[in-house]
Amino acid sequence: MFFSRGSLGTVEFAFTKRDGGRSEGNFASLNLAASTAPGLGDEFSDDPSVVKRNRSILAAAFDVPHIVAMTQVHGSDVVFVDGATVEAPVADAMITDQPDLGLLVRAADCTPVVLADPQARLIGVVHAGREGLVKGVVTAAVREMRRRGATRIQAWVGPRACGLCYEVPAEMADAVAAVVPEARSTTSWGTPALDVGRGVIAQLKAEAVHVTDIGEGVCTIEDEAFFSYRRQGKASGRQGAIVVLRPAGDRE
Ligand SMILES: [Zn+2]
């Protein structure tokens, strides 16, 4: 179920992989997204009731009554979840100060990021693909946390497509590198590519965020322990990252 699970003070988080759920076929087994290819028909989508069970399995593993996931649109909007919101906000980053509320970000080859400032009691998740990288969604999330009082933000960057696999047209590589030079890469076969994870990490470091690269050396396209849009096509599931803020005083 978990590729990596960790904690920092009262903050607990994990990055998931494919195993441990109930979905079948391309979605086997811990698929966390019901509508991965909207409008393409049932064969491209997992059974929503099974996805709900998968999310319940994750909620149980973290002992949280609710998990909030976003309707991710490759944008840069940041939503603050105040606890009243249990429906999926349309955004690619969300922040909360609510204890025992799971924040979930989902990705196949995009970069999932967990943010936390345990002292300020603020946590967040970010979904950053190529478009989110260019639009600066990670930077926007960090700045929103600071605006709400965060001073020492830690980021964990999860498994994603690596820069040796994520081939893109030359013009696209140029356009992204014009905004985030660190994201420029070359595939193992010598063609233009992007390393979105490296770009995201550069953006975090530019904001003086302390970064732990959980996904270093891992590639969702190459490793079948993960879902991959590039490897599996439109009918692919989504892994995710979850973060939970525990009540103050619960533990050190
Ligand atoms: Zn790779």
SSE topology:
Elements: E1 2-8, E2 11-16, H1 48-61, E3 66-69, E4 78-81, E5 93-96, E6 101-107, E7 111-117, E8 122-128, H2 130-135, H3 137-147, E9 154-157, H4 170-179, E10 184-186, E11 192-194, H5 196-206, E12 210-213, H6 229-232, E13 239-245
Parallel strand pairs: 3-6, 4-5, 9-12
Antiparallel strand pairs: 1-2, 2-13, 5-8, 6-13, 7-8, 7-9, 10-11
Bound molecules: zinc ion.
Zinc ion binds next to loops.
Structural overview:
The protein has one domain (2-245): 4-Layer Sandwich (CNF1/YfiH-like putative cysteine hydrolases), CATH 3.60.140.10. It has 6 helices and 13 strands. It has helices at residues 48-61, 130-135, 137-147, 170-179, 196-206, 229-232; strands at 2-8, 11-16, 66-69, 78-81, 93-96, 101-107, 111-117, 122-128, 154-157, 184-186, 192-194, 210-213, 239-245. It has a 6-stranded mixed beta sheet with strand order 4-5-8-7-9-12. It has a 5-stranded mixed beta sheet with strand order 1-2-13-6-3, with no helix packed on it. A two-stranded antiparallel ribbon has the order 10-11. The protein is globular. Bound molecules: zinc ion (ZN). Residues 162, 164-165, 219, 221-222 line the site of zinc ion (ZN).
